[in-house]
Design goal:
This protein is α+β, with helices and mostly antiparallel strands. The chain has 14 helices and 8 strands. The longest helix is centred in the middle third of the chain and has 25 residues.
Amino acid sequence: MTLDVGHICSVDGTGSMSRNLCNAIRAAVRETDICGLLNEGASLGVILTEIACNKVKDAQAAVAGKVKERIAAILEEEALASIRFGFRVYPEAGGEEGAFDPLFYPEVECEGLKDLLGPIIKRGMDLFGSSAGLLLLSPVFVVVSVTIKLTSAGPVFFLQERVGQNGKCFKFAKFRTMFTGNDDGLHREFVKQLIEGKLSKEETPVFKLTTDPRITRIGRVLRKYSIDELPQLYNVLTGDMSLVGPRPPICYELEHYSGWQRNRLVGKRPGITGSWQVGGRSSTSFDEMVRLDLRYLKEWSVMLDLKILLQTPMAVFRCRGAY
């Protein structure tokens, strides 16, 4: 919970008003909740711990009501009415534009030239690599496009809403490998069970459906050798993706992420290839994939990106875990 009180406390040079407001708020919340100053005292914040997902709205109303009662004893009615209450819920609901609240991720802000140099080099590699790839692979684009058109009805490219860096949504491009007009209910249910750990190894531990009836015959070939991923070079060129990084989830996948799993999307653009692709692809479990992504984000360097890029062709040709 946040309270915008800057206009009230700014006239108090001693800081006593901020302290009085904090004391009033502490008296209204539980001992396990944490109260303090935000934005150099312009706002007050309270971390309300252990609130069940189905009780969030009730908790907001109850806490706001108690806090207003307490601070009414130290503020005039006009000042009390001017305070703006806000609530930020973590983990945030997934899927919509701007799903990630920057308040929860202060570490993603760069500080100084040293912190900017690495991302600048990484972006330079992305621009060079995607431009060269689109140019050199243009004959492949033509052949695949014609083949898709001749073998099944529908568009050549498949565009899908995906969640990228820090929750920003973008249009993700692939060569179409499925029949048109499909219901995604089968995949939605599969993803839900996979993320929640309800699939046993006997059923299948992989991240993709191995016998998806929606896939065309040519689509299976394109997926096996990751040729369907080539249009994402355009996503890299436009800045929505990077050559190397975590894979961007579908919006409905994010709805089932727990807090630690959500961290795989923080700080770096999603990639065409990454630690997961060269380290096992779909033969790993979902939690193992997340851990690989988190390790990549923690240990990231330009040399690590180069290493993954050099390992990617062999991983593609081996086709291990590709469906």
